[in-house]
Batch of 2 targets.
Target 1
Amino acid sequence: MKERVGLLKYMQHEPAPKGEMTSGKTEEIEEGSEEDDEEEENGEEEIEIEFEGLPYFCPENYDPGLVLSVEYDGKNNLAFARLYDPKNKRIFCWYDNTNHHPYCYTDIDEEKLKSNKKLVTHEGFLGFEKIEKYDLLSDKPVKMTKIVANDPLSVGGKSNSIREILPKAWEARIRYHNNFIFDKDLIPGLFYRIEKGNLIQTPSQIPSLIKKEMETILGKEPEFKDVLNEFLPLFLTPVPDIKRAAVDIEVYSPIRDRIPDSTTAENQVIAVSLISNENESTVFVLRRQDVEAGDWPKGFPEDVRIEYFDNEAQMLTKVFKAMSNYPIILTFNGDNFDLRYLYNRAIRLAIKKEEIPIILTNEFAYMTTSIHIDLYRFFHNRSIQVYAFSDRYKEETLDAISKAILNVGKAKLDKSIHELSLLNLSYYCWWDSYVTLNLTQFDDNLVMKLIILLMRVSRLSMEDLTRQGVSSWIKNLFYYEHRRRNYLIPIPADINQIKGMSETKAIIKDKKFRGAIVVEPEAGVHFNVAVLDFASLYPSIIKEYNLSYETVRCPHPECRTNIVPETKHWVCKKRKGITSLIIGFLRDTRVKWFKPKSKDHSLKVEERTWNSIVERALKVYLNASYGVFGNEPFPFYCLPVAESTAAIGRYAIQRVITKAKSLGMNVIYGDTDSVFIKNPPEKAINELINWSKQEIRIDLEIDSRYRYVCLSERKKNYLGVFKDGSVNIKGLTGKKRNTPQFAQKAFLQMVETLSRVESMEDFDKAKKEIQEVAKSCYNKIKNKEFSLEEFAFHVQISKPLNSYVKTTPQHVKAARQLSKNGKAFKPGDKISFVKVRGKDGVRPIELANKEDIDTDKYKEYLKTTFEQVLDALGVSFDSIVGITKLETWI
DNA sequence: GCGGACTGCTTACCT
DNA sequence: ACAGGTAAGCAGTCCGCG
């Protein structure tokens, strides 16, 4: 083995591929198979996806394009970027020509390392470099040795990788392509051009007026200036409309309710639709014996092209060619189904691997010719669901999402797929692609813009961004912020060891620390209520109280007096914490700039829309910024940080309540960051707000004003009627999605009645009306006048049916009855069932009879639904329905 | 063997 | 694979009573 120790002489590479290449080879990659069992430390479980000699266009010079991804090419052992050329609407590619290599750090010095035979003779070992980094945990500079390797797998991912040889390795679990992004200061989602083979960022045209204005508003805090310059281009560079197409496949399946197995791909692909945002719609259809083409279906656009095939392999080959024309391929569940099925089916049909532009890993499906976005994954992401789309869709099926967002429903199939005429099949297949594409087009391409913005802020490739969760986005952002400041990225175990555990006791069993306060509500009807709340409480706390993994329990003795309430944790007074800085900056940018600018009607609509997208993107990071520190897989996991955030939150609201009372105000409820105040004098409100700013250093705002609020004695349950008569309902059973329709409807009628109430006197009339509603509903239950659908509860299963071992909840009982008939269930599926007398006490709606309905259970349920509101009115349900003590419920 | 008190499991919600 | 706090209904267990 050649000695390669000493001054680093990096190996020379084969020249990067030039021009159009078509002889690519793709292979299924085994992922980290050797160590999947034991990933003791947090971080990068997946190894690099190795793209091998892809059919890319790699020009010497090229006009600016948007970086869509940075990846690693295993065959050429090089990082490469895929860029989108908006003029010619195609992907071009740049291969690393900077001689960048994978590496990690050790604290062992070079001389000692030289004698480590295992290391220096490692086949991927290239050499050492002396490096100085800044270690935030000790608040001191540290000398490290950089160990440079030939390829990512030599650093980590195999049992004999360099990181396994070293007693301790820093930054060895960051995936190479991300490392490359950080080191080259590449920002995915921004424009770069190729000049004489070099990748050069195109400066963004930021209007100087806007820049100045933002600097005045956000630059008040000197430490933000540098961050602002870093982020301005990300926030203000326009996003082009990217050429893309959605794909959906239909597979022959003789059995209904059975999802075809994408691994074995046993059945024929009978139709594939490819619908682009450039008005190109094609459905590829396989002719089958005894199946008619049929008539052109109603509602099926006439410009959709139908291409018939007699041979399935030929069809797939054509499909692959067509797909390759699009820089972005969209699917709904393509990772698990469509692309996986296509690949495995193509192999089964003996299509040559190099003609299949798909690469499969255990979890994902990538395209060699395009970027594949699986929209199911993106919309499945809780942060996207809750914060970007305000919880508008509750189920993550294409149907539910498109219904909630696009307001289009899918036509129900009255036949099985295999019974449809070819044209009806085409229509059916087209529809899914059409809707999938539309999910990226509505509101002026909102979703694409959101994805690009999130990519920029996270420094993640489009493929990674759309597949990973918010914790990963924040992780990557923090990694980058460390790297650009030359801070050593800490080892999770070190943070844990130095910072220790939490000190507070959670109220809920098995939780790691105490969370927020919920004020005991004062049950009753309260007129004229103002709700004050802290504007993004936790991010504000992180910013104002300098919370970060290195500043909480910092190494300086002189900071130990700066104690977090209710804990023994102290916070650094000498150094601004990195996460406090970044989160603080994002918070201020959202609150002081993008949020007001998204509502500023002096701006053009497009500008306003853009500001609102940025605002929503920022919200996603901010809302998760506290939670990640209490989440163990997060590599900056630090319980004292999460715990301190919550503790300061309790302190803040507690002090506001005390102050409000001292100002003579009546606090009737509060939750985490809000206080409900009855009949507040305006002067006192202003005083409280000013006091909070001075004393707590967090903005308290008027969130809403209610004409009246109904509080029951239950926390997190109330009904409020705003001054304008609109209604806000929280937590009440009548609003929950698992509640049967009959109860929801009756509840809604009660709410409607209440919304018309203007004064205490109106309640008498309202009570009468509610009485009618309740009575009639009660009687309809008694006489079983509702349909089975209206009686049905709808509950999701959260895990595979057979893993309910501790108890068997009712919905699982119902599902098991159905699975006896061969129906399959997967997590996320919704089960509709009714309560019946006898046996299990429940029946799935499919197997139920009206006669079996257990009316007592339903009467009971109606009672709870109504009582949550009637409680507040001081009326008992029994009295309202007019049943006597004799005629009780059971 | 039965019923009530209790605990734990599960889902859906709130901030 | 962001956190903890709350409500509700049911499943399952324990214990005392007869």
Target 2
Amino acid sequence: MKGAPVQRRRTRQRAAIRAVLESARRPLSIGEVLESARRSVPRLGIATVYRTVGALVEEGFLSQVEIGGEAPRYEISGRAHHHHFRCRRCHRVFEMDGCLPDVRRLAPAGFVVEDHEILLSGLCPDCAAPRRG
Amino acid sequence: MKGAPVQRRRTRQRAAIRAVLESARRPLSIGEVLESARRSVPRLGIATVYRTVGALVEEGFLSQVEIGGEAPRYEISGRAHHHHFRCRRCHRVFEMDGCLPDVRRLAPAGFVVEDHEILLSGLCPDCAAPRRG
DNA sequence: ATAGGTGCAAACAGTTTGCATGTAT
DNA sequence: ATACATGCAAACTGTTTGCACCTAT
């Protein structure tokens, strides 16, 4: 077991990983973060991505988005309440603003609703668009 | 790649696996199915469970229930459309009948909604009850 | 008799960990 | 100088596949 480090350092790897997640408009998987961050740090290792993303989740900078049985994705914390849409073809996950005011009415009497998630799935605009060429 | 078999056979393994899932009152994970089914077929292999459950999902007998980042679970299909409530204290998952008619309006223009899932979480009646300990 | 099924072990894929080396402080 | 971070590879865990043997039809 390795205790948490006493201090954090600024490294190219961490800067790249943060930048990728900050500029993303949708939650990213570890693989997506790795691929994007390697554009600025080519030799970036996947273990570093796991460790860095894990640390960012622990410090509250990132939120983990668990969708179905798929690999967890990560997005910047503190955004407005929103839900997600998963494309069954390209498997990307998109954010959808807004919510349904009466979700908690689904719960039968006696249940205390504290949180909820709504996940839509189908085809994203890119995959639904008729392709030509 | 192995093509789907032309016909299905009745075997002790499949009977056991089906029986376990039919008598369950909650969605079961692969491990839970294996453990239960081994009571009637001790040498049952996990690969057979994966293959059989997978086949049952494909033929529509079972539905895969994916909740959060947890291992997928399987339940008998054909029940009325419903969603789930997960108790954060006892971790049980309950079914909630009904739905919200306007869920798919959450999706921005251009997205083709084919399916959706709603997961509420909080405390179930047992865990919300004032009696403690 | 034979297509199909099973169990085992090996192969895979995603994630975590150990360690020697590299680097921010 | 030194504690922390990185990259690589090995270790793990959960799932899938190849294959020789078995069995329902």
